[in-house]
């Protein structure tokens, strides 16, 4: 097919993250105006298109008289629902494509106001996180962790092949890419210690995940089908579910992960829409056990998003330490959302569903250091010679993801974070 | 001591829930004006004092020029912090006490506007729930459930005596007393079944808890001491953590309770302030194992709140099926909050911390049907002869709580909910 091009030239570069086929949503403020309130945007090539400016100019008004884009979060726009998302995407595509509407392209003053170079934009958390739920839908990851925590005979929990198991995470510490985070303190207890001690985590890890962003919810008491769930999803982000393995192993029985995960979760600043990922749909793997009808998928519901993780010591160069794809998931976001609402749980605009760690079948495709170093026993060697079993202070973890077409891609940008030393605290 | 009296006569009745010593906060709208926006109030005797009216009249302005009470939630007021809470309490006490300020008492028009009989008020959820975390701090409950789920040799998890273990719950389904709820659907699997099936829970239960309401938070990455945590707590509510035991037993390993708890959590409409409960402070029980210093309490941090649970079949009369006290908890809310923030988790205005089920040592002081009927094997007989192992459709559960002085009490009102049949859904 002959691909649509944009008059924003940088969007047409081969394999750029943000071609006109992508148009991911974010929230930005101009670097040179630190007190300007954040507002919504889409990325096009190397630019952020300020949607509040476009809305104010009357070129796109999805909320009618009530504006939705002059806001520090996408929630008001997301809450308008799938028809509004589709209409906005069609209008933005027309405003930005070569040969499309001339309202923006030919208005030099509006262009100057509305198109801000990404190099001069500060990105914010793109939406208010209503609730954060983390699933466990990677088959290889569940197996790997199960072997290390419980041994091979109990590796895969008995319920795992019957439902997308998950747990409620902590929404207040979901942060945008680039936010630095403190190494967590917690109770640590080795298998031979008589009692726990208080200390900074010594087994600090990342988890490579995708996050699904719920655009519209369901009322309490009203479950939804997988098809309905799919329609409720506005888009997807990259997600790093930072984890403290030593805190986790001591606390997680019987109520699940808590402080081991609550200190930080990083997401990409860009929400890539479900519409942009549509050409990259992929089927779930064959079911090892039949699923109950409420989890049946009406069609392919995964996406083939290529993923990589790079690690850089302080002042050092990046080493890519894992490459995999979101095709490796066993359950789709739509299945997770349908399962989440099954009991009558009300889902809300701004809910974030972590996929669970995505690990491929090979050692260099695992999605966490726990797996890549097999419980810390086989450290990785980075460029420059540094060795890592788990993360050290000053380390930066950078995740990248993109769906690959032929010469073009739909990219997520980066999901990055750097570790600061633990706080000085004794109680 | 000679107790303060109010010129609102009903507040002076012996053992009334809402004397002038209480002044619990809530959110109401007048029954006879269904489209009036909800606003904040305190209860005094049989009346709700409309705080938006008091604020508008200039008698109490904790937020200065910016009003905080003409709002459908207490969050803006709570976010002002402990000094503002204390000043508001002092001012309200003075406005309402016999012999105090005459600004309200002597202004007939304002009194008529601002004092609304509770019988003509509809109560709403008192605050926007930012996050809901449920702990497991009842020693007897943890033991009872542990015996039933894992046997007596593994009843108390190894971490239990070292930290207040908890898990993140679902904030979107926290509802106010009086809200009806649908029996949840879920995956059910008996121990001898080859595979799970979809169905309405057959082991639907309540859990008797208290909830601590976080008034002000801490920044991400900054743990807090138990003393600081205590100051961050605005007040307490009664809490029913509805639970589906059959969904729970199949899903909860290894990630903890999820759909078994996510369908509904009911709280009382009244938030009883920490200040009102101050005279009822009680020490935690002796520590069976020494706690790490960050969990040390600077003084008595529990409260002696007497609790009871009543069950009424549809159209039938109430039977009180359990009586206990919040003194039975092993960890205080302040300890729970300090532990929650230990990893650097940001706590926020409106966070709700469930205490965990409160069970006393005797069979008739257990805080759930699971315990009262010992796993459903020994059903209760209600007045009128109905028997219950777990909840049936149409059943109402009513919790009540109060701290008892000599002839006076600080009460919470009711925390009530009724079960509707499961929704008709197959996927």
From TrEMBL, chains A, B:
Presence of keyword Calcium: yes
Cofactor(s) listed: Ca(2+); Mg(2+)
Ranges where the Fumarylacetoacetase N-terminal domain occurs: 21-126
Binding site for substrate: 136, 150, 248, 252, 357
Active site: 141 (proton acceptor)
Gene Ontology terms for molecular function: fumarylacetoacetase activity; metal ion binding
Enzyme Commission numbers on file: 3.7.1.2
Binding locations of Mg(2+): 241, 261, 265
Domain of life: Bacteria
Keywords: Calcium, Hydrolase, Magnesium, Metal-binding, Phenylalanine catabolism, Tyrosine catabolism
List of residues binding Ca(2+): 134, 207, 209, 241
Domain Fumarylacetoacetase-like C-terminal: 133-416
Pathway stated in the Swiss-Prot or TrEMBL entry: Amino-acid degradation; L-phenylalanine degradation; acetoacetate and fumarate from L-phenylalanine: step 6/6
One GO-annotated biological process of the protein: homogentisate catabolic process
NCBIfam families in the record: fum_ac_acetase
Descriptive protein name: fumarylacetoacetase
Organism encoding this protein: Oceanicella actignis
Taxonomy of the source species: Bacteria, Pseudomonadati, Pseudomonadota, Alphaproteobacteria, Rhodobacterales
């Amino acid at each position: 097919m002959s691909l649509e091009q944009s008059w924003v030239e940088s969007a047409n570069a081969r394999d750029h993250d943000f071609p006109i086929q992508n148009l991911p949503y974010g929230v930005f403020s101009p670097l040179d105006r630190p007190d300007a309130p954040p507002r919504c945007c889409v990325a096009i090539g190397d630019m952020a298109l300020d949607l509040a400016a476009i809305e104010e100019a009357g070129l796109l008004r999805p909320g009618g008289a009530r504006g939705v884009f002059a806001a520090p979060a996408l929630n008001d726009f997301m809450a308008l629902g799938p028809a509004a998302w589709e209409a906005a995407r069609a209008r933005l595509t027309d405003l930005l494509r070569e040969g499309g509407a001339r309202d923006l392209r030919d208005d030099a003053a509006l262009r100057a106001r509305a198109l801000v170079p990404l190099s001069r934009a500060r990105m914010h958390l793109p939406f208010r996180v209503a609730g954060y739920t983390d699933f466990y839908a990677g088959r290889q990851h569940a197996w790997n962790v199960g072997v290390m925590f419980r041994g091979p005979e109990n590796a895969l929990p008995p319920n795992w092949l019957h439902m997308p198991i998950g747990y409620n995470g902590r929404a207040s510490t979901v942060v945008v890419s680039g936010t630095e985070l403190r190494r967590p303190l917690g109770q640590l207890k080795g298998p031979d210690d008589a009692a726990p001690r208080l200390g900074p985590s010594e087994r600090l890890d990342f988890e490579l995940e995708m996050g699904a962003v719920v655009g519209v919810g369901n009322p309490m008491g009203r479950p939804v089908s997988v098809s309905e769930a799919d329609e409720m999803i506005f888009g997807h982000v990259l997600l790093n579910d930072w984890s403290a393995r030593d805190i986790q192993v001591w606390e997680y029985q019987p109520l699940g992960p808590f402080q081991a995960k609550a200190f930080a979760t990083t997401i990409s600043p860009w929400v890539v829409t479900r519409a942009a990922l549509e050409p990259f749909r992929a089927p779930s793997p064959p079911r090892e056990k039949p699923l109950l009808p409420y989890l049946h998928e009406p069609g392919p519901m995964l996406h083939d998003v290529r993923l990589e993780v790079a690690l850089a010591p302080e002042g050092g160069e990046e080493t890519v330490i894992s490459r995999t794809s979101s095709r490796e998931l066993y359950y789709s976001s739509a299945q997770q959302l349908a399962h989440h609402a099954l009991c009558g749980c009300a889902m809300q605009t701004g809910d974030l569903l972590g996929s669970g760690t995505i690990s491929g079948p090979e050692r260099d495709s695992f999605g966490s250091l726990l797996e890549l170093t097999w419980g810390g026993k086989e450290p990785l060697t980075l460029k420059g010679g540094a060795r890592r079993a788990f993360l050290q202070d000053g380390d930066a973890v950078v995740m990248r993801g993109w769906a690959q077409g032929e010469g073009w891609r739909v990219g997520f940008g980066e999901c990055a974070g750097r570790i600061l030393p633990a706080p000085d605290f004794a109680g």
